[in-house]
Amino acid sequence: MISIAGIIAQDPVGMKQLHAARALALPDWCIAAGFVRNRVWDHLHGISPPRPPADIDVLYYDAADLSKEREAEYEKQLDALLPDLPWQVRNQARMHIWKGLPQHKDTADSMIYWLETVTAVGVRLETDDSLTVIAPLGTDDLLGLCCRPTAFGRTCRHEYEARIAAKRWHELWPKVRFFD
Fold first, then answer.
1. CA 109 to CA 93: how far, in whole Å?
2. Contact status, residue 60 vs residue 29, Cβ threshold 8 Å
């Protein structure tokens, strides 16, 4: 049986990135979005090694410090550990602001408000080197090669469709079925 943790665990590049993120000891953290989605879809399409993601989305939740400056500090720390990678560190405790929503409860809760279900999946490297998958909307769509909007994404249909087109997902992963 195919598992997201199994796919990620077999990728030495992804594991190095997870080790670097774990070194920051961020609260309620994971690496999500394209880091997971692209690796899973590449694996399911027989693409090996997986293509590098456009960015490496490190998420965490810290309601006590909502500053963008702290995120930039974490990005610098990651760049010192693994230079020249497209690190993007975002505190999910402040992501509600630009969407006009109440503050999210935690990292998983923030992912519910992303545009597509297949992107709302993250992984965390635990202290015992096991991988925890964070998937508040489940993993069936990702593993089943189905892309559909979240409930929030349905309220932003134009953004959902524009994002899929801009990222060329139809071309990169032709087996994926897209729903609206």
1. 10
2. yes
Per-residue model confidence as pLDDT tens digits over 75-134? 999 999 999 999 999 999 999 987 888 899 999 999 999 999 999 999 999 999 999 999
Token duo for residue 113: 């408000």
Angle between helix 12-23 and 68-81 (nearest 10):
130
Spatial distance between the Cα atoms of 114 and 150, rounded to a whole number of angstroms: 7
CA distances from 159 to 55, 82, 89 (A): 19, 32, 22
Q: Which residue has the tokens 């190095």?
A: 16
Cβ neighbours for 7, distance < 8 A, ≥ 6 positions apart: 39, 40, 43
Torsion sign across C-alpha atoms 104, 109, 58, 64: positive
